[in-house]
Design goal:
The structure is a homodimer. By secondary structure, the first copy, chain A, is α+β, with helices and mostly antiparallel strands. Chain A contains 8 helices and 11 strands. Chain A binds a DNA duplex through helix 7.
DNA sequence: CACGCGTGTTGAATCGCTTCATGCGCCGCG
DNA sequence: CGCGGCGCATGAAGCGATTCAACACGCGTG
């Protein structure tokens, strides 16, 4: 599918591109790739020749300690760039896994120079996206370091809700986030048992409902209030 | 001081610039700024017209919850960019404070476009630096989420040691990191009391020695071993 | 069809970390 | 000069999170 007809681009959440930029991005695109839930899309230590934009579905990136302890760093939703670190610095220092069936847009890393050279606006956009990621990580750090288990859980779900809503995933009925409780545990830095008990409390308060490998969000405002979180100031963002 | 004579630039840690790039950076520089320990260099919520490169000294950036709980996100050392987020996205979402007397190189944010337009290599460098920051935050998240108090403390000190060594701060004798134990507590997400007891254990094992507002690093390898941390793969990096 | 496996659930014991409290030395300042 | 504040130190009590141990359910598979 050509970029000009990309359904994401039509969404109000993404900023419009100059025709020349759009044309370049379209030529920059080397193909599409589909993957099932659970597929490892990028691996720590790899020198991938590609970077990707997530077209549909959910993914997450994570790191692990030598002894196996795993930490989920962030989640990716449609429009997000995957593997930029690998392209810019040379080697991935985290892995990426699909949380749902995904479709990816494939770019060749060796044409990144060309992008910066001929389309400075797009170069700036990539920096913008990197800064946005940094901002999310800042929020996550604040959460892990200074929030209680309950606040962390509330923050995480409100955060994922907001990001999903921004790309129209909260469609007809309430949003279902495709994660298991062990994903939540590995994101919040908690044990699975305690994560379970904490989510139970949120469910008892009718803020969420838990399904098999899915979290249904019932009351975002309630969650944001518990977490003392205002949400990301989501203005228009670029889409490469 | 003109960039051409910048003592940082002479260090092997930073990559050499093209003459044209260097000339631009020199013109990009709007002045220098000095500040004392404890000065707030940038504030959350501000729309600063500037961004900075740290020329000498130490600083840290942090976020706080409405009720006052504070989380230190990362530390800045000579060569690091401050306030890029504000320049790219428009508003700072964290604050920056000086840990020691600092000297800053001041840049005007409104000339950032020009940088991307006329010097794509520098634009790429800024993205590179943003990716490097992201990578450090990934490591911190792993630490906060999945390491014990002892491992976290060991990681933090080894991390700061490595970064300081990269810019030649481990000079003649052993390195002294200018932080207090409450900085450590706010970085590791621990209480001050428990931070104190943990640092005590590291000191008992002769890995560090604690002074007033300073940590002397005695055995980096021992610290890295405790943290199961391999260090950042520090190749040459750009300096804007 | 029985079995293993992933996912969610729950109780009980234990431990790591927090909170409360107190004390010391040092420094700047009214 | 005495006082308050900051940084470091330490003991004791309490709680929040982990670990251990089971169990239920659905699903794919040998």
């Amino acid at each position: 599918m050509p970029c000009e007809e990309c359904p994401l681009r039509a969404m109000p959440h993404f900023r419009a591109f100059e025709p020349a930029e759009l044309k370049f991005v379209s030529s920059f695109k080397a193909g599409e790739l589909q993957a099932e839930t659970g597929t490892t899309l990028l691996s720590e230590g790899a020198h991938s020749a590609h970077m990707y934009t997530l077209l549909s579905g959910w993914a997450f990136r994570y790191k692990a300690l030598p002894d196996g302890r795993r930490q989920i760093l962030n989640y990716m939703l449609p429009g997000d760039l995957l593997g930029l670190q690998g392209s810019v610095i040379g080697e991935m220092d985290h892995s990426v896994e699909a949380l749902s069936p995904v479709v990816l847009c494939v770019f060749q890393r060796d044409r990144l120079d060309e992008l910066f050279r001929n389309h400075p606006g797009l170069g700036f956009d990539i920096t913008w996206l990197a800064s946005r990621e940094e901002r999310m990580l800042d929020d996550h750090l604040l959460s892990l370091g200074r929030r209680t288990a309950m606040e962390r859980a509330a923050y995480l779900i409100a955060f994922l809700h907001q990001r999903a809503a921004a790309v129209g995933l909260d469609g007809s009925r309430t949003l279902h986030i495709p994660i298991s409780q062990s994903h939540v545990a590995d994101t919040l830095g908690l044990s699975i048992v305690h994560t379970n008990k904490t989510l139970r409390k949120l469910a008892d308060r009718k803020l969420i409902r838990w399904h098999d490998r899915a979290c249904e969000v019932l009351d975002v405002d309630g969650l944001m209030q518990i977490a003392e979180w205002d949400g990301l100031p989501e203005r228009k963002r670029p889409l490469i």
